[in-house]
Design brief:
Elements lengths: L4 H9 L10 E2 L10 E4 L9 E7 L5 E2 L5 H16 L7 E8 L10 E7 L7 E8 L8 E12 L1 E2 L7 H15 L26 H10 L5 H4 L1 E9 L2 E2 L4 E5 L5 E5 L5 E7 L2 E8 L34 E2 L10 E3 L4 E2 L4 E2 L9 E7 L9 E4 L8 E6 L2 E2 L2 E2 L4 E4 L4 E2 L5 E3 L8 E3 L2 E2 L6 E9 L2 E12 L5 E7 L6 E6 L6 E4 L2 E2 L1 E5 L5 E4 L8 E7 L13 E4 L12 E2 L3 E3 L3 E7 L12 E4 L4 E8 L5 E7 L7 E8 L2 E12 L5 E5 L12 E9 L6 E4 L2 E3 L1 E5 L2 E5 L7 E9 L2 E2 L3 E5 L4 E8 L3 E2 L11 E7 L3 H4 L7 E5 L2 E2 L2 E7 L2 E7 L7 E9 L2 E10 L4
Parallel strand pairs: 2-8, 3-5, 3-6, 4-9, 6-8, 10-18, 10-19, 21-31, 41-47, 57-65
Antiparallel strand pairs: 1-2, 7-8, 10-11, 10-14, 12-13, 12-15, 15-16, 15-17, 20-22, 22-28, 23-24, 25-30, 26-29, 27-28, 30-31, 32-33, 33-37, 34-35, 34-38, 36-37, 38-39, 40-42, 42-45, 43-46, 44-45, 46-47, 48-49, 49-53, 50-51, 50-54, 52-53, 54-55, 54-56, 57-58, 57-59, 59-63, 60-61, 60-64, 62-63, 64-65
């Protein structure tokens, strides 16, 4: 069923929120209720990656000092938030700039556009094209969705938290998430409790991961099930929340029969509470502004009645916790609730004022600091310029108390706001704090109502250009080695914290004369935006007037192919160390692999959808804050009748010199023995049968990209770029404890710390930085490292062997900076 666009806009852009929830359908109106969700089909896209394009016309009005490249960098950073969720398989890739009004691509993707929106609406995300429910799939595929942002951004600069968090929120909608009641990214601005450096919460992570789970998602995390009832009747659309006293708050909504299931819970003890959706405020179409689930005929299910919020098992005061363990489900966490006629306290938001700027959510300090209070507003908190009679506010978990005079009207606006001070417990630690608001029989829980910090927010006082290969010195206060400096939406390359407390960083590349808004971020969630506007950095205005335009090695590609092309972009000044991305104006053209050639040119494998014939596509190149476009860069022609298409098998990293390799070959109307060339040089074909071609890889091939072509019957296929791999790295040793080598006589034991030494790493990995990116699994279970130490061409790391690994000889699989390490069989035995 297609809802009117105005209704969707109201639902997705309004000021209230609900528990992590998806766009849901059910196969009938009677139990059992098995949800059918709307989501992208990751099996229909390469590398489980959804491409998004940004409208090239941009907003009509930008804030003073803002620019389109800065705006694009913030939008890309917002998309990256969802792309980096570890327990989700979904990934997002920036495809480039596009012209609104072009034909709708056949390949699934997301369009970011700018439109005139009603007052008070800052954006919305929505599914625009859906596929049909496939039997047995359990979901309705999203074929196209939109992120719609305001075309008038005069009062919403791209560097601000408000714009960035709105973009994160709308991308969540475009991926299949509805609103949330747990103060995460999918809450709207009223109850959102996130910052630019902590833009999503565990509730958002769980919501996305339930749609697009990794194979180990349910093994690593726990679940919770139960039912909410009034009398013998199930309560539909009630929100049930599992909340750790100083940790995660993760929730779900009940089915039409009152049953619920919460997935994605980290192991631990949780209070569980059930609460109703808030009533629809004026101008809002549904309670909580949720799109209700639909039956097969497109008829919406009813919302449940209003009821008193309670904690499990049956109290307004939390006193019983429920344990959650990895890979297990805590069952029968049931609620028997009482109906109420009027809504209670809801829509509470908090602020703090570390300087003159309001910070949301409130950030308070564990030490004696000026203005160390929060300000709260919400329905039901204030009456006659005083706290509502009987109102009490209690921190969950005892991390603080409210002293006798700690709750009072906020003097600048007593009719709408309360001022709240706390007495923090000794040795209180950094992290989130949840608050309970009670009045009579009314209970309202605000997860992530505040965040406790152990040091003040960072502040920038100066940026001085250094002579060291483009590096700059950033001076200020409250920096640490973990502080990161962002130029617009891109993090600068971190070099060091010098002995004067200054950060040495390398700004991302930008076009000459670009004005960048610079912000400092600390890992505790605070940023320099808490205490000051961004610091402005002006890039060198000297331009290279002799730079030639972008050019491609071919002006056309046929539909339904993948081919290697060469891109020449002298304006970018590309070096082997450059980080460059390339993309096209439609998701029907995708850059599947990109290399930098020794001559500074780009080599790109470009995939073309079979449905793309007849279109012209714009190429976008991005390098840091630089954006360069070439309109009508490629024309897509019809697929030829005689076509040869070769590809490596799925999951193949490339060619290993001195070994054999396989290709998958498709050829239409062609017969004969195939021939293979690498960089124009013929190689030995070992066999060709059933479309699988096996050939010998020369032993003297240097590591890097090569052009591979297959010929059959006098026809030559399009070139394909493939990676020649360096000799594989290997595991030198695995040690348990202080110095006990792990082997069959002394196997590894679950729960102990293992130290692994890897040798033979290629130069590209050795030069990757101080902490190379490493992935690790034992017996197929993902593990996290507790330390990684580079040692030249070697790396040493430590990890804790999970208690959930089985016993036996288990495969130990490692990658470092994307390079696979030759695996070993790790003997694991129990403690006895």
């Amino acid at each position: 069923m297609r809802l009117r666009r105005s209704l969707v806009l109201l639902l997705l852009a309004s000021s209230l929120a609900s528990g992590y929830y998806h766009f849901v359908r059910f196969q009938g109106r009677t139990a059992p209720f098995l949800p059918i969700v709307e989501k992208f089909d990751l099996a229909a896209v390469a590398e489980k990656t959804i491409t998004y394009q940004i409208a090239e016309n941009g907003p009509v009005v930008l804030a003073a000092g803002d620019s389109f490249p800065a705006l694009v960098s913030q939008i890309r950073a917002a998309a990256r938030v969802w792309s980096e969720v570890e327990t989700s398989e979904l990934r997002l890739r920036f495809g480039g700039l596009f012209s609104p009004g072009q034909p709708v691509p056949a390949t699934p993707g997301i369009d970011v556009v700018f439109e005139e929106l009603p007052p008070g609406v800052n954006g919305y995300g929505a599914v625009t094209v859906r596929g049909d429910l496939s039997p047995g799939s359990g979901f309705v595929p999203i074929l196209r969705s939109q992120v719609v942002l305001n075309r008038d951004l005069a009062n919403r600069p791209s560097w601000g938290s408000a714009f960035f968090l709105t973009a994160v929120h709308e991308f969540g909608h475009a991926l299949g998430l509805q609103h949330s009641f747990t103060s995460g990214a999918m809450a709207t601005e009223i109850t959102r409790g996130t910052t630019k450096i902590r833009p999503i919460t565990p509730d958002d992570v769980a919501g996305l991961s339930v749609l697009y789970p990794t194979p180990t998602f349910r093994q690593q995390l726990g679940s919770l099930t139960g039912r909410v009832t009034i009398g013998n009747d199930g309560v539909p659309m009630a929100s049930v929340v599992a909340i750790a006293p100083r940790g995660a708050a993760i929730s779900a909504l009940t089915n039409p029969d009152g049953t619920y299931r919460i997935d994605g819970l980290p192991a631990g003890q949780y209070f569980i509470y059930a609460h109703p959706l808030p009533g629809a405020l004026q101008g809002e179409p549904t309670p909580g502004n949720i799109l209700p689930p639909l039956d097969p005929n497109g008829r919406a299910f009813d919302f449940g009645p209003n009821f008193d919020t309670i904690f499990f098992p049956s109290s307004r005061i939390p006193f019983a916790t429920v344990p959650v363990a990895p890979g297990q489900t805590a069952e029968n966490v049931n609620f028997f609730v009482n109906r109420r006629s009027t809504p209670g306290i809801h829509s509470v938001q908090t602020y703090s004022f570390p300087a003159q700027t309001a910070v949301k959510p409130a950030h308070l300090y564990s030490f004696d600091a000026p203005r160390n209070f929060l300000v709260a507003s919400g329905v039901g908190l204030v009456q006659n310029n005083q706290p509502a009679p009987g109102l009490q506010i209690t921190p969950l978990g005892g991390f603080a108390t409210v002293p006798p005079n700690g709750l009072r009207p906020y003097a600048p606006a007593p009719g709408s706001f309360l001022e709240l001070s706390f007495q923090f417990a000794p040795f209180v630690q950094e992290g989130p704090g949840h608050l309970l608001f009670t009045r009579g029989n009314d209970l309202y829980v605000l997860p992530n109502a505040l965040r406790i910090a152990e040091r003040p927010a960072p502040q920038i006082s100066a940026i001085v250009t250094s002579t060291e290969d483009g590096a700059v010195l950033v001076a200020g206060q409250n920096f640490s080695a973990d502080t990161r400096i962002h130029f617009d939406g891109i993090a600068a390359a971190h070099r060091a914290l010098d002995d004067q407390g200054r950060l040495i960083v390398v700004p991302p590349p930008a076009l000459p004369g670009h004005r960048s808004s610079v912000t400092a971020f600390n890992p505790d969630g605070q940023s320099s935006l808490f205490v000051q506007s961004p610091f402005e950095f002006l890039y060198d205005t000297a331009a290279d007037s002799t730079a030639t335009p972008i050019s491609l090695s071919t002006p056309t590609l046929p539909a339904g192919t993948e081919s290697l092309i060469e891109i020449n972009a002298p304006q970018l000044g590309i070096t082997p160390d450059s980080v460059v991305q390339a993309g096209f104006s439609t998701s029907d053209l995708q850059v599947r692999r990109l290399w930098i050639a020794p001559n500074g040119r780009l080599l790109a494998n470009v995939w073309v959808s079979p449905a793309a014939a007849g279109i012209y596509a714009t190429l976008t190149l991005s390098q840091g804050l630089r954006l360069l476009s070439l309109p009508n860069a490629l024309q897509i022609t019809a697929s030829p009748a005689r076509l040869i298409q070769a590809s490596l098998p799925a999951g193949s990293p490339g060619l290993l010199p001195g070994s054999s390799a396989q290709l998958l070959v498709q050829s239409s109307q062609l017969a004969g023995t195939p021939a293979v060339t690498l960089n124009g040089q013929p190689v030995n074909v070992i066999s060709y049968e059933g479309g699988i071609l096996t050939f010998a890889v020369p032993a003297n091939l240097p590591a890097g990209p090569v052009s591979l072509r297959v010929g059959i019957g006098g026809e030559l296929g399009l070139p394909l770029g493939v990676q020649v791999l360096p000799p594989p790295a290997f595991i030198t040793s695995v040690v348990a404890g202080t110095n006990q080598s792990v082997n069959e006589a002394r196997p590894a034991r679950p729960g102990e710390i293992l130290t692994v030494l890897i040798s033979g790493l290629p130069d590209a990995v050795s030069a990757a930085g101080s902490t190379p990116r490493l992935t690790l699994s034992v017996g197929g279970l993902e593990h996290r490292t507790i330390s990684v130490t580079p040692l030249g061409s070697a790396v040493q790391f430590q990890f804790i062997l999970l208690n959930t690994v089985p016993t036996g000889n288990l495969p130990l699989a490692i990658t470092i900076e994307g390079f696979a390490v030759t695996g070993i069989s790790l003997p694991v035995r129990g403690l006895n």
